[in-house]
Amino acid sequence: MTNWSDSIPVHSKDPGRVKQNGPAHKTATQKSDGIVRLRREVKGRGGGTVIVISGIPLFAPEIKELARLLKKTCGCGGTVKDGLIEIQGDHRDTLAAELQARGFKVKLAGG
Predict the structure, then answer these.
(1) First CA to last CA across the chain, in angstroms?
(2) How many Å apart are CA 92 and CA 95, to the nearest integer?
(3) pLDDT number for residue 7
(4) For residues 29 and 48, what is the distance between their CA atoms, to the nearest angstrom?
(5) Residue 26 has pLDDT above 80, yes or no
């Protein structure tokens, strides 16, 4: 006999007992020591430069809003992945100044 208690429906409009996978949207980022780090990455990105911002002591919705504001400030694209903000292009100085103006303690990490 099949145990249907752990199954996930293929299609249903009823939320019912569907398990929620992944991190909760209200959890804070990973371990944070209060220092926001800006790291430049080029490897594995097709030669393009990306600034990865980690250690942000905010919840997920606030991180998304901060990412939106930082992208607008730099005039570039970016994304939020696993509590990290990725900003396209080499805008470390602009990002550091903006984050410091918002009250974060900023450290430039990496090359």
Answers:
(1) 59
(2) 5
(3) 66
(4) 26
(5) no
